[in-house]
Amino acid sequence: MIRTIAKISLVLLVIVALPLSFYLVREFSTLSKNEQMVQRVFSTQLQSILYSVNQYSENVVHQWSQSLDQPVEPTGTVMKGLVNNLFQDNHSVLTIRFLNLKSHGVEAEFFNSGSKVLIDYWPSGSEIAKLQEYLKSNYQRIETKMMTDSTLMLYFLTKSSNGEQACQIVINPRTFVLQNMSPQIQQIAQNLFFISIADSTSGKVIYSTEDNTSRGGNILKASMWYIPGYQVGIRLKAKTLEELASERTQRDNYMLIGLTIVVLLGLYFVIWNIRKEMKLAELKSEFVSNVSHEIRTPLALISMYAETLLLKRVKTEAKQEEYLNTIHQESARLTDIVNRILNFSRLEKNRLKYQFSKVNLHELVPEIMASLKPHLQASQVDCHFSSGVDEAWVFADSDVVKTMLVNLVDNAIKYSADRDRKIEIRLVKKPKSVWVEVEDNGIGIAPRNQKHVFDQFYRVTEGDLAHHAKGSGLGLNLVKRMMKAHGGSVALRSKLGEGSTFILKFPVKKQNHV
User: Fold this and answer.
1) Which of the residues 156, 254, 414, 496 has the least number of beta carbons within 10 Å of its own beta carbon?
2) pTM of the model
3) What's the pLDDT score for residue 310?
4) What confidence category does residue 40 fall into, taking pLDDT thresholds of 50, 70 and 90?
5) In the chain, what are the helix, strand and coil shares in percent, each to the nearest 5?
6) How many angstroms separate the CA atoms of 341 and 295, rounded?
7) How far apart are alpha carbons 146 and 129 in whole angstroms?
8) What H or E segment, with its residue span, contains residue 413?
9) Is 357 helix (H, G, I), strand (E, B) or coil?
10) Euclidean distance between CA atoms 240 and 184, whole angstroms
11) Which residues pair with 387 in a beta bridge?
């Protein structure tokens, strides 16, 4: 088995580790290539960021136009409410005016609090025709016009009026940038980029993502879509391009190293799982051998005694009765072995059906003990039952309870002392459960084995126990699973050389099984 595991481990190591090692070497050797690649695409990336800044400004302006482009009277209460909401949420908006292009008159004019900026501009016929052409193509174009250094006008045709109404919005560019665009710019910049918005003529910066605007470095610039005469600029905040490329490559390599560690851990898990499966296969093989031996023994006795009786070689009735009792006992033993295997198979496939009912363990346990009396007498075991209560009602399957107690008693007999064998079964009532304790004065179980005794196919084989106490390694695992189905659990107290106590803990209230 060890050689098989070693071969599998070597194959997995070659399949996984060698490609990863080759990739790591390749990544470190292509660091300079990565830097060159980043240099080539960096300009394109910055252009994309500048585009996203302008795109955000367009989204803000279009939100304004959509909120004002409503099929309502410009002088009505609804429009006044919409305008007031826009004024409250956007301090950069100074004035809003609606024009009737058909009558060439002003339909409504609104001023933000503290602002009396008048609009003295009427779009020309060619401008209106151009905007109407866009509107027919289902595109609402927004035009801009600088009025003064501190005021900018946006105007568009409303869809709700089929292009017969124009809306003009006067804003303060600086306030627009500070209030509406700065949060998005800060989010885009984060800790990597310095982004600024400045007057393209004077170079005066009206907004930047950091206070120190004189720091060196090439700034890539692009014109603002909706603020004529202003430019948005971007550059790296602190580190050089080569440093960023190196950091990114190192980060990728760290991630790759982490991935390698994860793969190696996965490799270890695969090897561990293979070892576990091989151990389980070994236990199953041992289980088949043990069961075959267990079945062969009663079959041989039954065959031998039956043949003796058929040939009429037994002269006395006492001897005949002895042989018949032996055949009966071995048949029961064989039936028990087969039932145990069948129960395990049903549990593995979730096909074991439980018939839960209200059961008084104070009456059921003595009945089970009475059925075990011939087996206990044949094994020369003194078994006693004690109970501190008159009633112990639980919801359980009485046949399954019998199976569990038979398994525990059978184990107690197998691993009991050579002389003065004793088994005590106690019924103990707890506040929220009822305990059935099966205690023997046998050889006990070592602490290192106690955590494994409930595993399937597991048997303690120290010394000559494997030959002295035959078994399949299923009994305690069946008990554990059956107790779990009852909503309870099984526990163990044991001390080497002094005996063991197995405890079935039944919950007092388990009405979901009714």
Assistant:
1) 254
2) 0.42
3) 83
4) low
5) 50, 20, 30
6) 11
7) 21
8) helix 398-414
9) strand
10) 24
11) 427
